Amino acid sequence: MTSRQAIIQVVDDLFAPDLWERAVAVVSQKRWYFGHSSGGGGEPGFWKMDLDGDADVDALWAAARGRCEELTGASLRVLRQYANGHTYGLGGRTHVDDVAPGHYTLLHYPMARWEPDWGGETVFHRNNGEIALAVLPRPNRAVLFDARIPHEGRAPSRDYGGLRVTLAFKLGPTGAST
Question: Residues near 12 by Cβ (< 8 Å), separated by ≥ 6?
Answer without folding.
Answer: 138, 140, 141
